[in-house]
Amino acid sequence: MKKLSALLLIALLAIGLVGCGSVKEEGQEAAADTGKTRTIDEIKKSGEITIGVFGDKKPFGYVDDKGEFQGYDIALGNRIAKELGVKVNYVPVEAASRVEYLNANKIDLLLANFTVTDERKEQVDFALPYMKVSLGIVSPKGNITDVAQLKDKTLIVSKGTTADTYFTKEHPEVKLQKYDQYAEAYSALLDGRGDAMSTDNTEVLAWAVENPGFDVGVQSLGDVDYIAPAVKKGNKEMLDFVNGLIETLYGEGFFTKAYNETLAPTYGDAAKPEDMVVEAKPDGYLQ
């Protein structure tokens, strides 16, 4: 009986080891698949490019009532796919995890309303910009018209955004309430869980237009920054392709047209194309 038990134990251990080995190999295969950056030729042969975008950031990247991606970022994504002669697969990302998606090769390109900063340049390679932006603050009408009024108050921000970084560094006296998704952040503002919300002025202006009772009391805060496509660090082929296309689009006035089609219906008289659109490489812009 003891010999039989021992043999059974050895057999079970062997089965367990084989099982563990099998799981490990599957994991290695999955890692290998996601660990490879696709070339332009591979994307063309596959017939599809995968682009990371926001799904809840109207009017820049969002899903409409029919389940279709729409917005200013989407207009550029569609043109990139057309230039490559492929279909586009949009993958919704969150601000805090969008770089991880890019570095893990879950996406080929990032068009998630991504503001160019020196810190982010260490993580990704930015292409030429297609939009300019600064921070804004939205609150119930008349409540917040100056940053100084936020002292000892609660400001809602999305994790990993320019607003999160700016207020953490420049205004530690302001209590931050952070959310993973923009939709959650705006819901928190509507519910009164915070006194105000800060993100790109382009966004809060659009949101305030659609939400009576709120206004953007602070329309421009911090430096004027640029929004640009991002590729995985070192992916020069994709970077050169996107830069070449954007230079062509500058000459076509593409981004002004995209503004009129995707942003103007939301902003109305609250903003003008020249307030946001970039149609030439900005002086001093360093990638």
UniProtKB/TrEMBL annotation:
Q: Which keywords does this chain's UniProt record carry?
A: Signal, Transport
Gene Ontology CC annotations of this record? extracellular region; outer membrane-bounded periplasmic space
InterPro entries, per database record: Bact_solute-bind_prot3 (IPR051455), Solute-binding_3/MltF_N (IPR001638)
**rRNA processing as a keyword?**
no
Indicate yes or no for the key word Signal: yes
What GO biological process term is on the record, naming one?
amino acid transport
One Pfam match, given by its short name, reads SBP_bac_3
Q: Which residues form the Solute-binding protein family 3/N-terminal domain?
A: 48-266
Signal peptide segment: 1-19
**Homology family:** Belongs to the bacterial solute-binding protein 3 family.
- Know the name of this protein? ABC transporter, substrate-binding protein, family 3
Species, as recorded? Aedoeadaptatus coxii
